[in-house]
Structure formats: structure tokens, C-alpha cells
Write a structure and sequence with these properties.
There is one protein chain. Helix 4 crosses helix 16, helix 8 packs across helix 9 and helix 15 packs across helix 16. Strand 9, helix 12 and strand 10 form a beta-alpha-beta unit. The longest helix is centred in the last third of the chain and has 19 residues. The chain starts with a helix and ends in a 16-residue tail after the last strand. With 410 residues, it is an alpha/beta fold. The protein folds into two domains: 101 residues, Nonspecific Lipid-transfer Protein, Chain A (2-Layer Sandwich); 273 residues, Rossmann fold, CATH 3.40.50.150.
């Protein structure tokens, strides 16, 4: 049976996507803006031997599936691909596509990572962070733009640029934390130092950032020196658990909690609490599940195998409870889900603009991983599969005073 017709038959309902296949078959509207090409029988092996999302990802990353046109549009159509339905339908599809030989698992693409050692030990966490962040600072400069901020931006309006939105994000965090000249800020999981430099430059704050990525720390140190901020800002290659215990006036955690396992959340919040003075505030900014009912980690998903190994997402209710249960009083919370979809669209545009240079820098396979990850993540935020929450907490003093204003000032 024609391969393209079989694949089209797996889609629940009509989609504006055309399919072509290595056997010369085609299906779908001939004038579609997006064409998905099944380039080899190995693509079918990938689809048959892994769950739908992971099989598709392996086939795309390896080049056995190609997409002509907008990848986001293609994924929106393939999101209705029924690969995990009844056994009778799966067996019928297997027969139509070539039979039992499809169940011979092909080699996994070399970009797929499987870490070793105790989950969320310091050594394994360093390896997980290095896999994603120690790729190439030059690549990230192309992808992220001048801000070098690899977390959800905050768009003040629909016309704002990515750089304007990243500035707005850092400034929103600063205002929620109540930063003032002379204060001391700790930024855990600081990336390339964007929040550290913003706090020092815009608020006169003495800021320390820590990251498990050596390349991020090296890039940030150079950027801080070039900006003339070395007297106020510093970034260290260090685990947040190893920061000397001292009383900071404020702590920001922007995009770190996704790397903290559920069992480690109590220790995470306790470690931040003891490093914060009474009356000091914590701003926790992270990707979350839309409820507390989903599992924190999906080990067999594309994003865990290729992008963020050992990543775990939690429902915002679970995070708020963990903050409360381990010393913080939560004072404010907001969901910025739509802002992350916009941010990812901007990063995708940057990647496409620098596609040839990116392939030359990190290799075609890794570049395809990033292209797929950005488009799939954007779809996830658009469809409320994942969310982005900022949660503001405060460490009360011995008498229960928060030092918070009567109404938000940000």
C-alpha cells in the first residue's frame, strides 16, 4: 500500500499538509504550504519502534523525515497523528507499511543522550547542563540575540521586539524583588549573566550569579568586564547548593527549577531560604505543567532524550505548596504562557536567519534538534500543554513581618 496514503490515514481529520514518500506516493492537498517527506524506510522503523513523539523526532533529527515549509505548521498537523491507538489499528498499519520487519529498531541518532549516575547528584546535574548549554556560545548568540537570555521574555505589547521583551522580563523580576542600590542579589542558574548585569547596571545592585555551565560562566565574565560592571556583578561556575551561606537581600531563579527533581524541591527551597535575609524576596520563574496531575518527568519524550535530560516540570500548585512548606510566604503569582510562545517564535526566526552558520558550528543533527525543539515547545505553550509561571515569595522575620508594600509596586 502507498506509504504516503497510509501515513495520511493516521491523521485524525483533514490537515493542510501534503505527504510524499520514498516509494513515489503522495497524499494530501497538492497546494499545501507544508510538505512532509518520508525519505526512507528507516523513518517507518523509527515510528514503529518508539512512541509517536519520540519516533517522529528520531526520524526528523536523523534526516529520514524532511519538512518543506513551516515546521510549526507541520507539527500542528502531526499533533493529531494517531500512532498509539488500538492494537488492531496498529497491527493493520504495520501490515500496510511492510510488516514485522518494521519492528527492527534502527540505531538511535547520536544526539540522543542517556546520562549515568544517581539522578540529580551534583555530577549528573553538571553533565545534564553541559549537554544542553555547553554547545557553543557563538551558536547561542545567533539563537538568542544580544540579550543572551534563554528564558521566557515578557512582551509589554504585541509590537515589542525580542530584545525589548527580554529587558522587560529582567526589569519585571527586579521590580518584583524590590531591588534598590546597595542591595545584594543572588541569581541561581544565571545563564549568560543577563539578570546579573541588568541588576547591576539598572539598579546599582551587587549581584552574584552561579551556573553549572562552564562556557556560560566564561562568556558572562567577559561580558561583565566589557560592560564595565566588574565592581558590581560576578558570575561563578558553581552549583547553587555550594554558594556560601550568607544573607542576600533578594534571590532570582529564572529557568532553574525545571532542572530540579520533585524529590529535590524541599532541599532547593530550604537552601535558598537560608541564604536570604528576613524580609528578602525570592522570585521563582519556571516552566510548569498545567496541573498537578501530570507526572513531573516523561523519560521517553523527545525533550528529555535530546534537549533537557533529567528535566522535570511540576504543576504550579505543587511549587507554591513546596515554597510555603519550606519557609516562604507566597505573595504573588502570574502565568506568562503566551509570552513564551512569542519568545520561542522569535528564537526560531533567529535560528532560520542563521541556519547555515549554525549547521557549520554545531552540526546538522544538533541544529535539527534545536529547530524541532523550538517549534514543538511553541506549540506546547500555545495549546496549554505547558505553562510559564513567576511565583514571588518572601522570608518573614521572627515576628511574621514581610516588609511587602500594601499593594504591588511593579
Amino acid at each position: 500500500m502507498a506509504v504516503a496514503k497510509v501515513i495520511e490515514g493516521l491523521i485524525a481529520g483533514p490537515v493542510p499538509v501534503r505527504f510524499t514518500a520514498f516509494d513515489g506516493s503522495s497524499a494530501g492537498p497538492p497546494d499545501a504550504d507544508v510538505t512532509i517527506e518520508i525519505r526512507s524506510p528507516r523513518a517507518l522503523n523509527y515510528l514503529a519502534t518508539a512512541n509517536g513523539g519520540l519516533g517522529l523526532a528520531r526520524a526528523y533529527v536523523s534526516g529520514d523525515i524532511e519538512v518543506s515549509g513551516d515546521l510549526y505548521t507541520a507539527l500542528a498537523g502531526l499533533d493529531r497523528l494517531e500512532l498509539d491507538k488500538s492494537w488492531s489499528k496498529r497491527l493493520r498499519t504495520l501490515r500496510d507499511l511492510g510488516g514485522i520487519k518494521l519492528l527492527n529498531p534502527p540505531p538511535r541518532p547520536p544526539m540522543e543522550v542517556r546520562l549515568h549516575g544517581r539522578l540529580h547528584s551534583k555530577a549528573r546535574d553538571r553533565a545534564a547542563i553541559a549537554h544542553h548549554y555547553d554547545v557553543s556560545n557563538r551558536f547561542y548568540e545567533w539563537l538568542l540575540g544580544p540579550s543572551m537570555a534563554y528564558t521566557c521574555a515578557v512582551y509589554p505589547d504585541a509590537a515589542a521586539t525580542l530584545e525589548q521583551a527580554q529587558f522587560a522580563k529582567h526589569d519585571l523580576v527586579a521590580r518584583k524583588l524590590g531591588l534598590e542600590p546597595g542591595m545584594r542579589l543572588l541569581d541561581v542558574g544565571c545563564g549568560w549573566g543577563g539578570m546579573v548585569m541588568h541588576a547591576a547596571r539598572e539598579y546599582g545592585v551587587r549581584a552574584l550569579g552561579v551556573t553549572l555551565s562552564r562556557r556560560q560562566a566564561e562568556w558572562a565574565a567577559k561580558a561583565i568586564a566589557e560592560a564595565g560592571l566588574s565592581d558590581l556583578a560576578e558570575v561563578r561556575f558553581m552549583d547553587y547548593r555550594d554558594v556560601p551561606v550568607q544573607h542576600f537581600d533578594a534571590i532570582s531563579s529564572i529557568g532553574l527549577t525545571e532542572h530540579i527533581g520533585r524529590d529535590q524541591l524541599p532541599g532547593y527551597f530550604r537552601s535558598l531560604l537560608v541564604r536570604l535575609r528576613p524580609g528578602g524576596r525570592l522570585l521563582n520563574h519556571c516552566i510548569t505543567r498545567p496541573s498537578n496531575l501530570e507526572p513531573a518527568a516523561h523519560r521517553r519524550m523527545f525533550i528529555n532524550r535530546y534537549v533537557f535530560p533529567d528535566g522535570e516540570l511540576h504543576g504550579v500548585g505543587h511549587l507554591v505548596s513546596a515554597m510555603h512548606d519550606h519557609g516562604f510566604e507566597v505573595r504573588h503569582e502570574e502565568n506568562l504562557r503566551e509570552h513564551y510562545a512569542r519568545t520561542l517564535a522569535a528564537w526560531s526566526a533567529n535560528l532560520e536567519e542563521h541556519w547555515a552558520e549554525s549547521v557549520a558550528e554545531v552540526g546538522l543533527g544538533r541544529a535539527r534538534v534545536w529547530r524541532l525543539y523550538l517549534a514543538a515547545s511553541r506549540l506546547g505553550f500555545d495549546r496549554n500543554v505547558v505553562q510559564l509561571h513567576q511565583v514571588l515569595g518572601v522570608r518573614l522575620d521572627a515576628r511574621g513581618h514581610s516588609g511587602m508594600p500594601l499593594r504591588p509596586t511593579w
